[in-house]
Amino acid sequence: MQTTPAAASTTISVRTTDSGPVGGTALFWGDDPGPGDGEILAACDKQNGDGKIAYAMAQWKVNGEWQFFDLIDEGASDYESGCTYADLPNIAEEKIVYVTACLKSGPNSAREYCGEDTARA
Ligand SMILES: [Ca+2]
Ligand SMILES: [Ca+2]
């Protein structure tokens, strides 16, 4: 894991590291635009027909223990680009969250082309 940056943003977009047009992104909102200030994670499949789906993961620590949440965006079997969103379990405000964006060949396939960045809950 990286060291904690001095000032991470509350809203970030993380790109997968594949070459050419980006295959996928992970989005994180540290403050839900709706009621409350909860956190939202999204995976976005940005490329139709490339045989890859998007994977997003968020990790943060509670009392020294790593917490973990992930989701995939299958892009309607890879024929439609878009995003899949999920409300995250409550994360303490200002907590640093590590957000990872990867591609996969299928829901149970290995993670590929992973990019990572940090945000604030
Ligand atoms: Ca928040
Ligand atoms: Ca795709």
Helix residue percentage:
under 10%
| Number of strand elements | 8
Just name the CATH architecture. Sandwich
Structural class: mainly beta
Bound molecules: calcium ion
Gyration radius from CA atoms, angstroms? 14 Å
Q: Count up the domains.
A: 1
Beta-strand portion reads over 45%
User: Total number of helical segments?
Assistant: 1
CATH topology: Immunoglobulin-like
Through-space gap between termini: 17 Å
Element-level helix/strand string: EEEEEHEEE
- The shape, in one word, is globular
Average pLDDT reading: 88
Low-confidence stretches: none
CATH class: Mainly Beta
Region (Disordered): 1-25
Biased composition (Polar residues): 1-19
Summarize the structure.
Helices cover about 5% and strands about 50% of the residues. The chain has about 120 residues and is mainly β.
Task: Describe it.
With 121 residues, this protein is mostly beta strands. Helices cover 3% and strands 50% of the residues. The chain has 1 helix and 8 strands, in the order βββββαβββ. It has a 4-stranded antiparallel beta sheet with strand order 1-2-3-6, with no helix packed on it. Strands 5-4-7-8 form a 4-stranded antiparallel beta sheet. Strand 4 (53-62) and strand 5 form a beta hairpin. The protein is globular. The model has no long low-confidence stretch (mean pLDDT 88). One calcium ion binds at residues 45, 47-48, 50, 52-53, 75, 78.
Topology diagram in text:
Layout (H helix, E strand, L loop, with lengths): L10 E5 L8 E6 L10 E6 L7 E10 L2 E9 L1 H4 L3 E6 L8 E9 L7 E9 L1
Antiparallel strand pairs: 1-2, 2-3, 3-6, 4-5, 4-7, 7-8
The structure holds calcium ion (2 copies).
